[in-house]
Design brief:
Keywords: ATP-binding, Cell membrane, Hydrolase, Kinase, Membrane, Nucleotide-binding, Phosphoprotein, Transferase, Transmembrane, Transmembrane helix, Two-component regulatory system. It comes from Streptomyces tagetis. With about 900 residues, the chain is an alpha+beta fold. Helices cover about 40% and strands about 25% of the residues. The protein has a six-stranded antiparallel beta sheet, sandwiched between helices. A hairpin with a 5-residue loop joins strand 21 (about 695) and strand 22 (about 700-705). It starts with 14 loop residues before the first helix and ends with a strand.
């Protein structure tokens, strides 16, 4: 007999016992098998019928299913036969009734003196010939003329004759005089369509079911044959299943055991089976190799195999273990052990052994690689979270400590911190430093903010000069580093820093600075693998630092542009006491702006606007709109008309930018324009998609006046509306942009509520109001620009305003001059009397001559002396040069020469020509 060999090529000493076991199985086999080596037919049949085996259970289940299917088929067939019989009875009854009703002589017989004598024989003949149970002829009242039973003639018919009387043929099932039956009723119609009688033919249910009963034996025979065939087929399948599961022959069993042995002795894991008394029952080839077992190990106690005490104790105890590591003859073995008696098996345990010596070394290297990949991943998500150069450098320094280095420093050129291009001739500045102890505060390295100029022979200088990383595994033996600062270098080494890596911080061709990694607590010096990791880490950080540098440059340019476009200082005026705040967004410069524009008649225009977006384009667009508002305000237009012109301008800008591929249209702009008149104490407001103003009365009551919203600028198609607010002296008018109200956590309604609370608790002055609003509303990192304008109103009293109505008579000009002279004397402005008389004379004369019947004069003493002449004409005068021979045309020229400024503004009732003179 050929025996299997183990992996070493030697014959296994365990084989005889295995073959003896197979021999005993073969000796037992003839007692339960037939001559052919298969189960006997009688034994197989008993096993199938017993139902204890899988084959028996399958046989019983299949028989039950077949019986149910045959029964269902038989019932279905019987129901089908019965249904077909009933349908046949209906059709036959209908055919007989219709044929008899339409047969010749039936209609004439109904009108005979004795219809029964004529129709009864014919009806019976038809009944017997067709096989129906009755043929009944009726008159229209339902009285029978014929019937198989003569005693029923002359009585009322049982059934629904209404459809037949209506000329329709109908079939129905009723309980008639013959029992339950299926009948058809057909009308007998006269030539004119009138129903003169009816014919009913039918078959009783008993006769209908008789067909079913006649076919029942055939159905049962077919069901029995099907059951027998199905049972035979199921028995064959079950017998085959029994043979495949329980009738394995000797050859199959031999191959099964051979495969078992081959697998057991070919696996790369050691397998040990230990009995309940601690004796080794089986050890495969791999277990013998790993434990260096003797040839006669099987059958001996595990304590006598020369194994280390810990693993021998584990095998003897039989306790469960999973991947316990034990040192056996310079091998690290991972041992797993399970009990064999947990589910009723024999007492003992099975142990598997794996050599994890090389795996542990590989696992250590893999763990190191994983940690480095994790750090690179963290660098990708943790460095560059903001577009701030200093913060990005600090993120790089913190990431490397303590996972890679004990201390790390980042040195950048000053121009990089400001957003410019680096200049190698300038010194570097220590931008970030991090360490294992208080961010490196106690290590004698250069502090943050210190300017450093590295010498060329130092590691940092060499990295900056060559653009390559430098590894110094031992700092005490690095002469170049000591030449940088010998005293500080000695203190650093004395502190315990022993290894250094310097990596240039490069973004393309730009050298931004240098990063240094230091080790002190970790006794292992940096190696080439660490150098590669440092280069990869710094390369990723360099991209983020360069992006932050570029953003800083663009942000600085945008801020500079925006600052240059915003008002540097507020103009001089006496109508309003004004305070303002402008705060650019942290993420980028936006397009918010505000303006205070003095107008004629001591009036002041307040403007607040917002261009959607950030960056240079938004700032430039804001400058264009602000300039346009300046120009339009010089026309002294009402707020709604000014916004209309501004809306047309934005629409034209969008058209021009859409036609230019390199241009960018205005994606949205809002504006609020308010004109305050200190003489009347009124404020006219119009807004284009902008948040509404807030009014705080002198008593501290906060109000949000109703001002029509209007559409944003550039939408077009809809007019703007002006609302007039009456403001008492000391009222505060608060204008703002949406950046003050909206943020990612709250909506505009919550922002308005916070503004209301802040205004209710703020002081009376505009400065205190601005401070209170920003303290309540300003987020930590504003995502949008904030423009805030607070104006406290003043009202010019009657002692500073003089008004007169002027009759439409040239002679009234003299009276105007005398009144003005007296009022100027009261104001102590006698020096301006002559010029003022001349200005008013010319303006009033022109108004009387060309301006209509209503003329009104007003003189206001403010920062200047203002003379205004109101008339009802909408014609504007023009300044011109008069020829030597012209008799007129010099009036406005004289006014322009005597006044500092003059102009025209229109009102709903006409126009106003005004002139201003500086006060002495």
């Amino acid at each position: 007999m050929v025996r299997l060999r183990g992996r070493s090529g030697d014959r296994s000493s365990r084989r005889p016992s295995g073959w003896r076991a197979r021999g005993r199985w073969d000796e037992d086999r003839p007692r339960r098998t037939g001559a052919a080596g298969r189960p006997g037919r009688a034994a197989a049949l008993r096993q199938v019928l017993s139902g204890r085996s899988v084959a028996g259970q399958v046989f019983v289940l299949n028989i039950a299913i077949v019986v149910l299917l045959v029964a269902a088929a038989a019932v279905s067939l019987l129901l089908q036969v019965r249904r077909d019989s009933t349908a046949d009875a209906r059709h036959r009854s209908l055919a007989v009734a219709s044929s008899f009703a339409n047969s010749p002589g039936v209609r004439e017989s109904l009108s005979a003196p004795d219809p029964t004598a004529v129709l009864q024989p014919r009806a019976e003949a038809v009944r017997k010939a067709t096989g129906v149970d009755f043929v009944v002829v009726l008159n229209p009242e339902g009285i029978r003329y014929t019937h198989p039973k003569p005693d029923r003639i002359g009585k009322h018919f049982v059934g629904d004759i209404a459809p037949a009387l209506a000329g329709r043929t109908v079939t129905e099932e009723v309980n008639g005089t013959l029992g339950r039956l299926v009948q058809a009723i057909a009308p007998v119609e006269a030539p004119d369509g009138r129903v003169v009688g009816m014919v009913s033919a039918g078959i009783t249910t008993k006769n209908v079911g008789g067909a079913t009963e006649r076919q029942l034996p055939l159905v049962l025979i077919a069901a029995g044959v099907g059951l027998v065939l199905a049972t035979a087929g199921t028995a064959l399948v079950s017998r085959r299943l029994l043979r495949q599961t329980h009738g394995l022959g000797p050859n199959e069993m031999t191959r099964m055991y051979e495969h078992h042995d081959a697998v057991l002795h070919a696996v790369r894991e050691g397998v040990l089976i230990v009995g309940g008394e601690g004796r080794l029952l089986l050890a495969n080839d791999e277990a013998r190799r790993l434990l260096d077992l003797p040839d006669d190990a099987e059958g001996r106690h595990v304590r006598g195999l020369g194994l280390p005490g810990d693993i021998a104790g584990l095998l003897e105890s039989g306790r469960a273990a999973t991947d316990e590591v034990h040192l056996v003859r310079e091998r690290l073995l991972a041992v797993s052990q399970r009990s064999t008696g947990a589910r009723g098996g024999p007492p003992g345990s099975v142990a598997t052994l794996r050599d994890s010596t090389e795996l542990r070394a590989l696992s250590g290297r893999a763990e190191t690689a994983r940690e480095r990949l994790d750090m690179l991943y963290d660098a990708g998500v943790g460095i560059g979270t903001s577009l701030d150069v200093t913060r990005t450098a600090e993120e790089l320094a913190r990431l490397a400590v303590p996972r890679f280095a004990d201390y790390s420093t980042v040195d950048l050129y000053d121009s990089v911190l400001e957003g410019g291009r680096p200049e190698s001739v300038t010194p570097l500045r220590r931008t970030a430093r991090s360490g294992v102890t208080d961010s490196g505060g106690d290590v004698p390295l250069y502090p943050v903010g210190r300017q450093i100029r590295f010498v060329d022979v130092s590691p940092q200088g060499e990295s900056l000069r060559t653009g390559r990383a430098v590894l110094e595994p031992r700092l005490d033996l690095a002469p170049g580093w000591h030449e940088q600062d010998a005293e500080r270098a000695a203190r650093v080494v004395e502190y315990g820093v022993h290894s250094l890596i310097t990596v240039p911080l490069r973004a393309g061709s730009l050298m931004l600075g240098v990063v240094s990694f230091w080790r002190s607590r970790n006794p292992e010096p940096f190696d080439t693998d660490d150098l590669a990791l440092a280069e990869e880490l710094v390369a990723r950080a360099a991209v983020s630092i360069d992006n932050a540098r570029r953003y800083t440059r663009e942000h600085s340019m945008a801020v500079a542009l925006q600052r240059s476009l915003l008002p540097r200082s507020l103009p001089e005026q006496n109508a309003l006491d004004i305070a303002y705040r402008y705060l650019p967004a942290q993420a980028g410069v936006g397009g918010d702006w505000f303006d205070v524009l003095p107008l004629s008649g001591a009036r002041v225009a307040l403007v607040v606007g917002d261009v959607v977006g950030h960056g240079l384009h938004a700032a430039a667009t804001m400058g264009r709109l602000r300039t346009a508002v300046h120009n339009f305000s010089a026309l002294d237009l009402p707020p709604d008309e000014l916004l209309g012109l501004l809306d047309e301008l934005v629409a034209r800008i969008d058209q021009q930018e859409n036609g230019d591929p390199a241009g960018a249209p205005v994606t949205g702009a809002t504006c609020l324009y308010a004109v305050y008149d200190p003489v009347a104490g009124t404020c006219e407001v119009a807004r284009a998609g902008h948040p509404p103003p807030v009014v705080v009365g002198p008593d501290g009551v906060v109000d949000f006046p109703e001002v029509p919203a209007g559409v944003p600028l550039g939408v077009g198609g809809l007019p703007f509306e002006t609302a007039e607010l009456r403001l008492a002296a000391g009222s505060r008018l608060v204008l703002y942009t949406d950046g003050l109200l909206e943020d990612r956590e709250h909506d505009i309604d919550a922002g308005l509520a916070r503004v209301r609370r802040a205004l209710e608790e703020s002081g009376d002055s505009p400065e205190e109001t601005c401070r209170a609003i920003l303290d309540a509303q300003l987020p930590k990192r504003p995502t949008d620009d904030i423009a805030l304008l607070v104006a406290r109103t003043r009202v010019l009293g009657a002692d500073r305003v003089a008004e007169w109505g002027v009759p439409s008579d040239p002679a009234a000009v003299a009276e105007v001059r005398s009144r003005v002279t007296r009022r100027l004397t009261e104001w102590g402005l006698d020096e301006l009397a002559f010029a003022t008389e001349l200005i008013l004379s010319e303006l009033v004369t022109n108004a009387i001559r060309y301006g209509g019947e209503t003329v009104h004069v007003r003189v206001v003493r403010d920062t200047s002396l203002i003379c205004e002449v109101f008339d009802s004409s909408s014609t504007s005068p023009h300044l011109r040069y008069a020829a030597m021979t012209d008799e007129g045309g010099r009036g406005l020229f004289l006014v322009a020469q005597l006044a500092e400024r003059w102009g025209t503004r229109y009102t709903p009732a006409g126009k106003v020509i005004w002139a201003e003179q500086p006060l002495p």
